[in-house]
Structure formats: C-alpha cells, structure tokens
Amino acid sequence: MNKMNLIVTAILILALATVPVMYTVGMQRYKAQLDEQLETAVAQLRADNESLTQQYNTALQEALNKQAVEWERKHTNALSKVREALLNSGVTLDQLNAESMPEAPVLDLSIPQSVYESLKKGQSYEEVAEVLGRDGDNILNIEDTSGLTSSFEWRWDDANGEAQTLGITFINNKLNHKTYSAFVF
C-alpha cells in the first residue's frame, strides 16, 4: 500500500504541476481568439465609418449644391427686381447694360459738430431724437433713489466708412452727459 500511495501521490503531483501549464496554454488560446475578434470588430467599425463618412459627404455635397442653386435663383430674382426698379426710376436700358454703373455718391451720415454742440444739458430724450432725426438704441436703464438713468446710442458711418457713436445719458429724461466718438482725439 505504501508503494501504491507513493504512485498515486506522484501521479497527483504531476497532474497538479500540469494544471498551471494547461491554464496558461488555455489563456493564450483564449487571448488569441479575443485578439482576432477585436481585429475583426475594429476592421468592421473602420469599414462602417468609411461608409458613413462617404454617405455624409455625399449628402453634404448634395445639400450644398441645392443651396447654391437656391442662392443663384434668389440672386437672379433680386437682380431682376433691381433692374426693374432702376428702369422704373428713369435709368435707361443702355445705362443698365453698360459695363460699369456710375458709383453712388458716398454720404457722410455723421453729425456735424454744430449739431453735437446744440445738444444741451436738460434737453429731453424726445428733443434730442428730434434734433438727430431718429431714435437712439436704449442700452441701459437703471432706477435708483436719484431716479431713472437711461443711456442711448446713435450710430453712423462717416464718409470714410468708419463707425461713429454718439452716446447720451439721461437722468429722469433730461440730458446729463454726451460723448461722440468723432470728436475723441
């Protein structure tokens, strides 16, 4: 029995010694299978991505072409209306068909210093808007114990195309402070 026990023990020890080797071999095979599945999935994702990208680019190009056609139609329609309006205003067909149209005069829409100086402390918003010929853009309203403070801006482009801004602050609808960017040096 002693011999038998030794033989069984030896067989068990050999069997146990091969378990880690078999486990390692099994894991390597499983890892190889997972790597292969991963490569297949990545290749499929790349193919799907390429297909979707091509579909997107095709759809985008079609939309851009459609938009360009629509813009061209609107542009042609607008040009036609402008030509009609010019013809109705007395411009001759020969003038319209000339290679170059005369340049429109550049208007200086800024306000002269004399108008700026005529705006005095205590004037109401309505009086100022009448002097300037239009309403300003209300940019600020604050109400506190001293009353309502409102700031307005009037904007123009001068003859050089530079933006000019007139800012006026009113307290209780009376001109309190004014600044004009054309006169800032």
Describe the structure.
By secondary structure, the chain is α+β, with helices and mostly antiparallel strands. The protein folds into two domains: 1-104; 113-183, Beta-lactamase Inhibitory Protein, Chain:B, domain 1, CATH 3.30.1450. It has helices at 2-88, 93-97, 113-118, 125-132, and strands at 137-144, 147-157, 163-171, 174-180. Strands 1-2-3-4 form a four-stranded antiparallel sheet, with no helix packed on it.
How is the secondary structure organized here?
Blueprint: H1 2-88, H2 93-97, H3 113-118, H4 125-132, E1 137-144, E2 147-157, E3 163-171, E4 174-180
Antiparallel strand pairs: 1-2, 2-3, 3-4
Specify the oligomeric state: single chain
Query: How would you describe the shape?
Result: elongated
Q: What Rg, in angstroms, do the CA atoms define?
A: 42 Å
What is the overall number of helices? 4
- Structural class, please? alpha+beta
Largest sheet strand order: 1-2-3-4
- Give start-end ranges of low-pLDDT stretches: 104-108
**What's the count of strands?**
4
Main sheet attributes: strand count, strand direction, barrel closure: 4 strands, antiparallel
The overall pLDDT average reads: 80
Tally of structural domains: 2
Strand-and-helix sequence, N→C?
Answer: HHHHEEEE
SS strand fraction: 15-25%
Q: Give the termini separation.
A: 117 Å
Helix content: 55-70%
